[in-house]
Amino acid sequence: MRNPQRRLLCSAMLALATTALPQIALAQKWPAQPIRIIVPYTAGGGSDNIARALGTELSRELGQPVIVDNKPGASAMLGAEMVARAAPDGYTLLLADMPHTITPSLYKTPYDALKDFTAVAMVGSSPLILAVNPKLKAQTVQEYLAMAKASPGKLNLASGGNGTATHLMGELMKLQTGVFITHIPYKGSGQAIADVVAGHTESMFTSAPTVVPHVKSGSLRALATTGAKRMTALPNVPTFEESGLKGLTVSHWFGLLGPAKMPASVQTALHDAVTRALKAPALQSKLESLGMDITPQTSAQFATLMEADTIRWAKIVKERNIKAD
Predict the structure, then answer these.
(1) Cα(270)–Cα(264) distance, rounded to whole angstroms?
(2) What's the pTM?
(3) Backbone dihedral region of 51: left (phi > 0), alpha (psi from -120 to 50 degrees) or beta?
(4) Residue 314's closest CA among 126, 121, 172?
(5) Highest mean pLDDT among 88-92, 164-168, 312-316
(6) What pLDDT score was predicted for residue 189?
(7) What is the DSSP pairing of strand 66-70 with strand 156-159?
(8) Which has fewest Cβ within 10 Å: 60, 180, 254, 261?
(9) Strand partners, 259
(10) In this structure, are residues 96 and 66 in contact, taking their beta carbons and an 8 Å threshold?
(11) Confidence of residue 3 (pLDDT cuts 50, 70, 90)
């Protein structure tokens, strides 16, 4: 082989090796520094509590500190964009939830909610619950819908605001059942729940962690849950499917996402660490206290769930002409 050809071959081999080295080094050394979980909401909420409980166990599993960093703003888009733009090295993650797949239908997001992220691991899920003021005569969801059909528009259904998960769940129920119930948007679920408890509004969909204490105290009545099975915390409350209503099974999921193009080795290591962490009794107890079911999935299954949710909510937003606040 002539010298020029040998030099060209050596250069090509060196370039190939140089390209591969960062990936090999990353796989061998990861994690070599603290890991940051960005929560796109304020501290003290459900997502924040989940991230901190998960972070404690992940730190034990990975041997590195796991730092929870709250970055609220722009309907959770601020924190999500930070992760989408971060290096795909496994050190910056997003604690995402179901609204991550709703936002693209309501806003012009500075990222693609699916293509700009790597699905790492599902953490858990909880159903939404249709709750009513106990003075309302309806004892079941069927009686509730019968009241709505008998007097279109008379019943009120509160939500945490236009375009929120609680709003879209109400629109999905109305679409599936053909009833007309007046939507009352609030600036946050807290005030909406307070008004349903006080009787100013008759009903609302809300998340399990916020409604379970009110149901147990008797200040609210739960008619049905959107889960695939009954909740451990509310074993006497049927699912919509048990109540004879199809197409209303919805899970408010929580999971970890990383930036797109994360090395498969790091994605797998993270997924396996989360799976091990979810077996810790302390974390299981914390998630169950929040009304959550631990629902481990493969990364591929998690990605498929997000894609299906994105399609489902986009259809609801379009058909019901929903606009964000």
Answers:
(1) 10
(2) 0.83
(3) alpha
(4) 172
(5) 88-92
(6) 84
(7) unpaired
(8) 261
(9) 117
(10) no
(11) low
Q: Please, what's the b/e burial string for 294-309 (b: 16 or more CB within 10 A of its CB; e: otherwise)?
A: ebebebeebbebbeeb
| 194 has a pLDDT exceeding 80 | yes
| Collapsed DSSP state (helix, strand, coil) of residue 235 | coil
In the predicted model, is pLDDT for residue 254 greater than 80?
yes
User: CB-based contacts of 300: which residues, under 8 Å, 6+ apart?
Assistant: 119
Angle at 38 (CA atoms; ends 189, 166), nearest 5 degrees? 20
Contact between residue 204 and residue 198 where contact means Cβ atoms under 8 Å apart: no
* 46-62 and 281-289 helices, crossing angle to 10°: 170
How confident is residue 28, by pLDDT bands cut at 50, 70 and 90?
low
User: Residue 1 — very low, low, confident or very high, per pLDDT cuts 50/70/90?
Assistant: very low
Cα 190 from Cα 176, distance rounded (Å): 27
DSSP state of 32: -
Distances (CA, A) of 210 to 79, 160, 215, 243, 264: 23, 12, 10, 23, 37
